[in-house]
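Hey Z.,

So I finally got round to the S-adenosylmethionine thing we talked about over coffee. Here's the setup:
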Amino acid sequence: MEDQGEILIAVLRMGHRPQRDKRITTHVCLVARAFGADGVFLWRKDEKIKENMDKLRKTWGGDFFVEFKSYKKVLSEWKGIIIHLTMYGEKIDKIDEIREKCKDKDILIVVGAEKVPPEVYEKADYNISIGSQPHSEVAALAVFLDRFFKGRYLYREFEDAKMKIIPSPRSKTVIEKSFKS
Ligand code: SAM
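And the result:
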């Protein structure tokens, strides 16, 4: 990215409960990928989510990762900046300061499901709210990434994608790319 260079942006999805949260965790992964992150760490193993994201990647491109790792390990091993999204945090108006601070540092964005343990609030460099009303980890992540990248990734294209959508006022226009082997 233009002013962010070659940094890694990962999302730590806390508290994934395979039965209950399958759909919303998949949406966390989809939003992370579409809005500019490189991958998601899932606290609990859920091969189905990884399979779905691998399948999506084959058609739509990129090298987005889904990795299973305990949140304690991710947090303790992370060398860059940690940003926890919570309705109790400071206002997103701090985004310019955060962008500046993250210029040459990897970023871990933490989102929750149920109650997030206090150690996450303590370990985070920033606890950031996207408004002070409770809503959703998917919405919070989308708004944060969009503000962070100033909308740059909304029409993101992946070089190795097999399908490409041509924005259209009425119809579904999709072109299938052919690749030379
Ligand atoms: N009590 C939670 C909290 O601390 O934000 C709300 C639980 S909500 C179902 C699940 C996750 O969505 C939260 O852990 C947080 O990451 C995200 N979230 C919800 N509302 C948010 C807000 N207003 N600002 C930032 N993140 C939010």
